[in-house]
Amino acid sequence: MGRDHLCRRLAGFVALVCALAFSSGASADRRETDLSRGWRFQFDVEATAPQAADFDDSAWERVTVPHTWNHIGEYRLERTSATNNEQGVGWYRLSFRAPRLREGQRHYLEFDGVGNRAEVWVNGQRVGEHNGAFSRFRLDVTEHLRPGNNLIAVSADNSPTSSAGSPTADIIPLAGDFFIHGGLYRGVRLISVDDAHIDLEDYGGPGIYARATEVSAESAAISVLTRLHNQSAAARDVTLAAMIRDARGRVVAREETAVALGAGARSETTQGLRIASPRLWNGRADPYLYEISVELREGRRVLDSVTQPLGVRSFRFDANEGFFLNGEYLQLVGASRHQDRAGRGWALTPADHAEDMRIMLEMGANTVRHAHYQHAQEWVEEANEAGLVVWAEVPYVSLASFSSGPPTEAMVQNARQQTIELIRQNYNHPSIFMWAVGNEIDVRGRF
Question: What is the pTM assigned to this prediction?
Fold first, then answer.
């Protein structure tokens, strides 16, 4: 065996030992329970109190999430009965057995997308609402779950925002040339985690946010902000361990920080990591991805862990010369993309997203505009891996108010909420280069 080969073998062994030393091998306390199956659905329920735990839903339709009652779009000159453009309130109910509930844990319902206004009950008790069809939201249901069987009820309201007084009148978009589909049209799950965890109430975001502050051929400096939440009654002394792995799973950077968490407190910690000789995320030419993981530990016990994609790149826009990626001019050629599909409406599967991406790449696109709202995480992950340059957009379209005057304060707050959700939930995706605050410049009404 040659000396160089032996050195490479030893280097790999040392890297493995370091990685094992860095990670205790214990699995994180965070658990996710998929809630896609077993739902009952009924549109335009006439009965009273369909959210009640003892309500009889046996006659309702059995459905699997993702689901929508709308199926706008046919490859025909005229619509048939296969198209359903009903707007109003659809009800969903799910009976499920809770995972093991133990002291010192929190439990969150996570919805990836509900059109358009959602209200949620657990075991007959209202636990919260969300206004906006396109972003993830979470609700703390710790105090409402019980051992054994539980009941979740959700109302999804896609009533027209055609006038003041509508239940969706202050939820953007107020208008537009696309239809708002109703339903649980993206995934649903239950997240169980230790009382001390990476914050799950950060506008649906991952709780960790990484960005490259310096990029050169020699090294890349990565700043990682982590938001923590201690919901226990006692202070906790914890360790925050950040680690970057390359595409082969090798640890290329790590940092550990001791953190004192006050009882019932939130905190933020910023860590700095450096990658030697980084391989850049370079669009379609080489969409190279690292991943960054942050573990929250108490002693050797891993309380929580979150992993996100990381693409190292630099870019700039020049009013005269155009777009530059990693110092090189890149002509952007692409299209806008909506999330609907004939026969399924907005209830797309991962295979649907993948097929859309194949079509986009066959067209020769290297960029895509998300028209005109936040798209599913599965689609953005496809863009990361394909190397598309993405324009991500808030659903502010055509109309700011139902008069020529300013918008309502509720509408402004909803626009702000959906903007924060868009950015927090997609911050770590290297494909996204632009945040857009609206669709068209000829908006009616003063903003």
Answer: 0.92
